[in-house]
Automatic annotation (TrEMBL):
PROSITE patterns: RRM
SUPFAM superfamilies to which the protein is assigned, alphabetical: RNA-binding domain, RBD
UniProt name for this protein: RRM domain-containing protein
GO cellular component: nucleus
Organism listed in the record: Dendrobium nobile
Location of the region described as Disordered in the Swiss-Prot/TrEMBL record: 191-212
Length: 447
């Protein structure tokens, strides 16, 4: 276990986040006596008045994803027991303040393109002989441990590459010294490599996941199984994400989240079900499965295809109004939903929106709006037909039917976002004259 401290280390602190924002995050748990913001590293150190206050904060945020100005931040106990004047200086290198050694801990921020062992070797080998590389996923994002033959080569690489991007505008390198002196690599594959021992097997026979680094004694965890699937899903999605956002993600989206499962609460139990939740959350990514909690009927778990899609859903749906309730949407502590009779499966559904035109769907992701876009409509549909199909969900202010490439589409403007959201969750994938219609939020303000 990581040693407790009254100093909390916060990552992914964007330039828009102020001291007041950070204080608001932790003051409910006790007095914050000191604060340091390391702007160059997008990090911060906050010292609580005592260790119990820090423990209360960390226990709370272990179950609730902390976010500031719609940006997810990541918290851990600092290796500092107390902040000193030196710690608060602008030259502070990192939270660990570990002595330079030959093993580097590298975190990749804003990862729009897949990063493999081969890519990392190409980036780091010009600075010295790289002996071993191990990659893994953590809450801070995609990380790697890189072992050089000499300490001087690691120091040169850290000084040269820290803060640089692997690709233009993305995949930024955040480099710290590890407290490990030697990496153990059991397999040579896309996740790990021992360049001094090319005869290692690619996989242990009978197992699909390699053993790795546990959390104890400051050693970083190598996640297996589900994280591997997440990594592959993110890799296959990378091109679509890059095409959609042209190298720059929406404000408040880090692109580093690796948690695929969301917990949504404060649901209206009289009106909601799995299919309606699917209709709403599939706006932001493909859904694997959904499960309502038996002991908390207004809570549901939603497993998305990958962490980026889950981050979009949490970002855009947190606080949305649906059926008279304001939704609480956060990342779950569960990595996935175990298949079971009470868990509804959606992985193979052709209604998942991101099976086709993923880049287009990413580009249209937004918070709920008053305007709905409806496609795959019957050729003979009229505005009266459309109003008749949707008016039970709220007051319709205006409608417009138009044609794109010979196919009928429509815009429908409701009086408010809640009414439009209700119409979307109830009527997406419903039928009009034998046509299964598709409904999404539109960012247009007027018809």
């Amino acid at each position: 276990m990581t040693e407790t401290s009254k100093v909390i280390h916060v990552r992914n602190v964007g330039q828009e986040i102020s001291e007041a924002d950070l204080l608001q995050l932790l003051q409910p748990f006790g007095e914050v006596t000191k604060i340091v913001i390391l702007r160059a590293k997008n990090q911060s150190l906050l010292q609580m008045c005592d260790v119990p206050s820090a423990i209360r904060a960390m226990e709370y945020y272990s179950n609730v994803q902390p976010s500031i100005r719609r940006r997810n931040v990541y918290m851990q106990f600092s290796s500092h027991q107390e902040l000193t004047t030196v710690d608060q200086g602008s030259q502070g290198r990192n939270d660990q303040d570990l002595e330079p050694n030959r093993v580097l801990l590298v975190t990749i921020h804003h990862m729009l393109y897949p990063i493999t062992v081969d890519v990392l070797h190409q980036v780091f080998s010009p600075h010295g002989f790289v002996e071993k590389i191990v990659t893994f996923q953590k809450s801070a994002g995609f990380q790697a441990l890189i072992q050089y033959q000499s300490r001087s080569a690691a120091v040169m690489a850290s000084n040269t590459l820290h803060g640089r991007n692997i690709y233009d505008g993305c995949c930024q390198l955040d480099i710290q010294y590890s407290n490990l002196s030697e990496l153990q690599v059991n397999y040579n594959n896309e996740r790990s490599r021992d360049f001094t021992n090319p005869s290692l097997p690619s996989e242990q026979r009978g197992r699909s996941a390699q053993s790795g680094y546990g959390e104890g004694s400051g050693i970083y965890a190598l996640h297996t199984g589900g994280s591997r699937a997440v990594a592959f899903a993110q890799m296959s999605n990378a091109a679509a994400i890059a095409a959609a956002f042209d190298g720059g993600l929406p404000a408040g989206i880090s692109g580093t989240n690796d948690r695929c499962t969301i917990i949504v609460s404060n649901l209206n139990t009289d009106k909601i079900d799995e299919d309606k939740l699917f209709n709403l959350f599939s706006m932001y990514g493909n859904i694997v499965r959904i499960k309502f909690l038996h002991n908390k009927p207004d809570h549901a778990l939603i497993e998305m295809e990958d962490g980026f899609q889950a981050e979009l859903a949490v970002h855009f749906l947190k606080g949305a109004l649906l059926f008279g309730k304001r939704l609480e949407v956060n990342f779950s502590k569960h990595s996935n939903i175990t298949p079971a009779p009470d868990a509804h499966e959606y992985g193979g559904s052709n209604l998942n929106r991101f099976n086709r035109n993923a880049a287009k769907n990413y580009r249209h992701c937004c918070a709920p709006t008053k305007m709905l876009h409806i496609s795959t409509l019957p050729q003979e549909i009229t505005e009266d037909d459309l109003v008749s199909h949707l008016e039970e969900h709220g007051a319709i202010v205006n409608t417009k039917i138009f044609e794109v490439n010979g196919k009928k589409q429509a815009l429908v403007l409701f009086e408010n976002e809640e009414q439009a959201t209700g119409a979307l969750v109830c009527e997406h994938a419903s039928e009009i004259d034998g046509y299964t219609i598709r409904i999404s939020f539109s960012q247009l303000q007027n018809i």
